[in-house]
Amino acid sequence: MKNEILDAYGFVLEPELIDEIAEVGSIHEIKQGEVIIDYGQNLRGMPLLIEGAIKILRRDGEGDELALYYLERGDTCTMTMTCCLGQQKSKIKAVAETDVKFVSVPVIKMKEWTKKYQTWMAFVFESYNNRFNEMLEAIDNLAFNNMHNRLFKYLKDQVLVRKTTVLDLSHQDIAYDLHTSRVVVSRLLKSLEKEGLIELGRNKIMVIQY
């Protein structure tokens, strides 16, 4: 486990901290589509992602969900971190966008490392900054971009997260993430295909321009 942590986080965390993470952390492997963290869950640890991608969702008062951002190798979820440190129940849902492997770090160690290691403090603040910028971008997309642009950006983001231009996504899955209807998604996908930006297959979408 130590070598995997070193490969994913050794560029930002010092060897002594990597040793501690390997000593106290627990490794988890989750299949694509499985829920890793759910709304209202008591959180006892923070995930450090080693392989794959995780989708972070937020639910509104009516129960509808919106995808906020994605976590990739070398990332962590700052909203989870906030809930852990504040001893609050989870306000987000984390779903495995691909098969994932991560290390769960105990809450008590997170607080200790903040005082003990400067690199951990820098990593935490950088993570907050990155996630904050991604959420601002999500808000801007909702407020200023039409659904056509939002959909194409969503597909390009999926290409980056999944590391493939052939996306195994149903129209309903996309509709859930974009907080719209399947009918709207289907219509806009056909429009993107006519523009030569994508090709549609059976439950597959090939992104041509990204």
Plain-language structure description:
This protein is of the alpha+beta class. The protein has two domains: 2-143, Jelly Rolls; 145-207, Winged helix-like DNA-binding domain superfamily/Winged helix DNA-binding domain (Arc Repressor Mutant, subunit A). Helix content is 48%, strand content 23%. The protein has eight helices and ten strands. The strands form three sheets. It has a four-stranded antiparallel β-sheet. The protein has a three-stranded antiparallel β-sheet with strand order 1-7-3. It has a three-stranded antiparallel β-sheet with strand order 8-10-9. A hairpin with a 5-residue loop joins strand 4 (54-59) and strand 5. Helix 4 (107-116) packs across helix 5 (118-144) and helix 6 (147-162) packs across helix 8. It is elongated and about 55 Å long. The two termini are 35 Å apart. The model has no long low-confidence stretch (mean pLDDT 88).
Topology of helices and strands:
Blueprint: H1 2-9, H2 15-24, E1 26-30, E2 35-37, E3 45-51, E4 54-59, E5 65-71, H3 78-85, E6 93-96, E7 100-106, H4 107-116, H5 118-144, H6 147-162, E8 166-167, H7 171-178, H8 182-194, E9 198-201, E10 204-207
Antiparallel strand pairs: 1-7, 2-6, 3-7, 4-5, 4-6, 8-10, 9-10
